[in-house]
Each structure stands twice: as structure tokens, then as C-alpha cells.
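Schema walk-through. Below, the input block comes first and the output block second. Nothing else is stored per chain. Lengths vary across the set, and this one has 169 residues.
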Amino acid sequence: MPSITEGNLTFEFPSGWEVSKLDAWSFYRKQFMSIGNGTKAIDVLAVEPGRTCAWLIEIKDYRQGPRTKTLEIADEIAIKVRDSLALLAAARVNATDGDQKAIANRALNVRSLRVVLHLEQRVKPSRLFPREIDQANVQQKLRQRVKAIDPHPMVRERAVMAGCPWTVR
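--- output ---
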């Protein structure tokens, strides 16, 4: 069972899946990242067996502190998705790491692409520390920004993982 740990969260995927921390690829860090004014990459790329679907998963964990970026979160994710797809296309042809080249090729030969924002916030909001991000609002804005890639992007958290075939602990 493949798994990926990002911060305090561990994502466990079903057997047979290929998972990779896209933003940790050597091709991204050493070659692709510096294109233009810089590029961004999503956190996790997960490819289902049988080339059914590739999942682009961005992980945000605000349980310990608030979001400090001024860019809207839906815009940030849309930029990362766009740059990640360009990264996969370039890696498919130019990556020197054979494993990265192969997973990029498999990720681009799927029948569908899915976008998921895994957004953790305080479980019990209070007046002092309310939930600062409205998940439904983010999901609606994300849908508008990435509809050409995934018309039904998801915003999920550990408590609500409906539609995601993996677990998070």
C-alpha cells in the first residue's frame, strides 16, 4: 500500500497505485522550477492502475496557524495545477530520472484528471479561532478556475473524504 507523508498528514493509497511527491522531483527542482518567474507544483501526483485517472492533490494544513498568503486559495491551486500539467509534459520528454519520466508518461495517458484540495482546519472552531476558509466557497471558485481540467474538483478534509479512494491519518 503506497503512502506519502506531507507535514503531519499521511496519505495511504490502494495497492497498485503510483504516487509521487511532484514538488520534490529532481526534474522540477533542478530544471523546471526556474522557468519564467518561477513555477509551482502540486504536492502529490497519484495514478490509478489501468491508466483510469491521475489525481493532482494539493495539501493545505491550517490547524496550527492561519493562512498568510494574499492570493486567493482557489487561484493558488489553479496555478499549481496548470504548472504541474506543464511539468508533466516536459518531464515526459526531458526528465533524466527514468522513474519520473515514466510516471509523467503514465499520468498523461489517463482517461481523466482529477483535482483535489485537501484542506485541514481547526476541528472545533471558536470565536477566537474560527474556520477562516469556507470550503464550499473555495470548491465553487476552484470549479470555475479548473473546469477545463476537472469539471468537478474536490475540497476534502480527513473528516469528509467522500469520493476519494485513499485514506488520510
